[in-house]
Write a structure and sequence with these properties.
By secondary structure, the protein is an alpha+beta fold. The chain has twelve helices and eight strands. The protein has a single domain, classed as Beta-lactamase (3-Layer(aba) Sandwich). The strands form two sheets. A five-stranded antiparallel β-sheet has the order 2-1-8-7-6. Bound molecules: glutamine. Keywords: Acetylation, Hydrolase.
């Protein structure tokens, strides 16, 4: 596959270089510990994968080790909800950047229980509510969806992380109850939170993540399975919101520096969509103050700059 900046550049070589550069730097940031089970992640793990539309996956480092996908699960949840709900979804959740930390509560009260977008916690909990309402077993539906997209039966939930999220989920519970008080949550709060914590606790590798999201780089059609996951219009919409809100209150800076639709999670993963080409997934557990992986950011920034991948 060839890219704009340097048609002769080899992708596997570029990934190896970028990975080496990243691990040579001193580790910056801190592994998430507000969910205690996440604190056990090994800070020196670091991997990157680039899945291309022709079905190849190039990797460097720990790209096949599963890690906690955390907020990256919000992308799968949203797509599943868009498949079921149609445009009605957008009456209950917005599409504007929040400019606030991912678990902020203040804005939600000012805005009458309508979350700014589906990629902050309140928005993802709202999306979880629609999944609980639409599926007899929303957790099983979520897992089957992810496994099918990744082409891997091995994607599974980590029970320890799930128990830890549930035990330390007061802030997410507060968001859910606040939305319930405004009449914007249909199902029981406990059930909605159980789904949300479940999807956050799923583990996948960089390789599986990059493969699973290929449909977003291909106007909604998964190039390997041939499944039409979304319409081209919905793929456009998901990418648009990822561009403005996928990296939380660092989304503007990420657009400025990189220019790709992307989503991060506090497990240290970041996925970036390269429309028409493929998907990058990077992983390294230490996070900056916005909750984004420091090495993940530097690897994706470097790769995008070397290959000229910006959508802008
Ligand atoms: N940014 C994240 O990855 C947050 C997900 C985490 N499970 C939470 O709800 O706090």
């Amino acid at each position: 596959m060839q890219f704009l900046a340097d048609a002769d550049l080899s992708l596997p070589q570029a990934l190896r270089d970028i990975h080496r550069l990243a691990v040579e730097q001193p580790i910056e940031g801190k592994v998430a510990d507000y969910i205690p089970a996440l604190a056990t992640a090994d800070a020196i793990r670091c991997g990157i994968a680039f899945a291309t539309l022709d079905g190849e996956v190039h990797t460097a480092g720990d790209a096949e080790l599963p890690f906690s996908i955390q907020s990256i699960s919000k992308v799968f949840g949203l797509v599943l909800a868009m498949q079921r709900m149609g445009d009605g979804l957008w009456r209950r959740v917005g599409m504007e950047p929040s400019g606030q930390p991912f678990n902020s509560i203040v804005q939600l009260e000012w805005e009458h229980g309508i979350p700014r977008n589906p990629f902050i916690n309140a928005g993802a909990i709202l999306v979880a509510d629609t999944l609980v309402a639409h599926f007899s077993s929303s957790r099983q539906a979520f897992l089957s969806f992810v496994r099918r997209l990744a082409g891997s039966e091995y994607c599974d939930v980590n029970d320890e992380v799930l128990a830890s999220e549930t035990r330390h989920g007061s802030r997410n519970a507060a968001l859910a109850y606040l939305m319930k008080s405004f009449g914007n949550l249909e199902a029981e709060v406990d059930e909605v939170l159980a789904h949300y914590f479940f999807q956050c606790s799923v583990e996948m590798s960089c390789k599986e993540l990059a493969t699973s999201l290929l449909f977003l780089a291909n106007q909604g059609m998964h190039p390997i399975t041939g499944e039409k996951v979304t319409s081209p219009r919905d793929a456009h919409r998901v990418n648009a919101i990822l561009s403005t809100s996928g990296m939380y209150d660092q989304s503007g800076q990420f657009a400025f520096a990189v220019g790709l639709p992307a989503k991060s999670g506090v497990g240290g993963g970041i996925v970036a969509i390269v429309p028409g080409h493929g998907v990058i997934a990077a992983w390294s557990p230490p996070l900056n103050r916005h909750g984004n992986s420091t090495r993940g950011l530097s690897m994706i920034t470097e790769l995008a700059s070397r290959l000229g991948l910006s959508i802008f």
